[in-house]
Task: inverse folding
């Protein structure tokens, strides 16, 4: 089967959970005998069209190169005057749309698998539907409901732009429509999108993953009197780790936090909390 995967970034050229996820998915599909192509944001390190992924699997990567790629607001690299432009380009980017349509027309895939598209824009859906083949969408985040950090789910903006909150889901619904299959990474994501009326005609599936925990009143490690918190992820502000750290003084009782992740200023981060023995 010929499968085209569309994703903003792909490992090893970019870090991040979704980039690694897509790299693993592509590798697994190739190992099972499928022909896989990846369409992603251009990276100067991608020298050849045939690219080797971290586990030595080779796939074809088609970089989208446009100076007018959308820069999401949550990246904190968008000036105030450019935010309306950034939002508009997120909904539809004609330059990205044209490039992806041309690539898909050349590849003639049997299935198109869409992932993150904050940089490539929602044009990826319109491009994929032109191919008239099954479209699978993996819903990683809530950016269809509140793209790029609009109020409720992220960065505060001007009151005028905040007023888009009620309008944004309606706009995105008309663009993304109903892919053949929508794959969620959690029950929360599925419930939230259904509340907003997304994907009425799609087969909606929750991927069985380690993020699904069984509710219990008695922790399995009941012998351990110390309540332990495990954090796994990038140590960036957008992940909310510093918000957790600020809340520590308000947490009563004895506890321990294990932090697994990387950050650009890792040394400064460690020094900042070196005095607190509860943090590992």
Result:
């Amino acid at each position: 089967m010929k499968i085209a995967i569309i994703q903003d970034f792909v490992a090893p050229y970019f870090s991040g959970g979704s980039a690694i996820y897509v790299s693993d998915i592509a590798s697994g599909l190739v190992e099972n005998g499928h022909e896989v192509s990846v369409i992603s944001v251009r990276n100067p390190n991608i020298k050849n069209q045939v690219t080797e992924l971290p586990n030595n699997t080779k796939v074809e990567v088609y970089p989208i190169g446009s100076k007018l790629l959308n820069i999401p607001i949550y990246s904190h690299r968008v000036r105030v005057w450019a935010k309306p432009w950034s939002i508009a380009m997120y909904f539809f980017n004609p330059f990205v749309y044209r490039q992806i349509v041309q690539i898909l027309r050349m590849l003639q895939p049997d299935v198109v698998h869409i992932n993150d598209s904050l940089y490539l824009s929602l044009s990826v859906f319109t491009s994929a539907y032109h191919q008239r083949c099954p479209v699978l969408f993996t819903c990683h985040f809530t950016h269809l409901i509140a793209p790029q950090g609009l109020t409720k789910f992220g960065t505060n903006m001007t009151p005028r732009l905040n007023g888009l909150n009620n309008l944004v889901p309606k706009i995105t619904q008309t663009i993304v429509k109903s892919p053949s299959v929508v794959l969620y990474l959690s029950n929360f994501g599925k419930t939230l999108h259904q509340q907003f009326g997304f994907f009425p005609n799609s087969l909606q599936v929750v991927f069985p993953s380690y993020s699904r925990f069984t509710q219990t009143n008695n922790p399995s490690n009941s012998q351990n009197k110390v309540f332990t918190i495990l954090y796994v992820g990038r140590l960036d502000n957008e992940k909310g780790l510093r918000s957790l750290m600020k809340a520590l003084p308000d947490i009563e009782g004895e506890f321990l936090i294990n932090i697994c992740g990387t950050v650009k200023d890792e040394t400064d981060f460690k020094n900042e909390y070196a005095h607190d023995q509860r943090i590992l």
Observations:
- Residues 224 and 255 are 10 Å apart (CA to CA).
- Residues 149-158, 210-216 have pLDDT under 50 and may be disordered.
- The longest helix spans residues 17-31.
- The first strand starts at residue 2 and ends at 6.
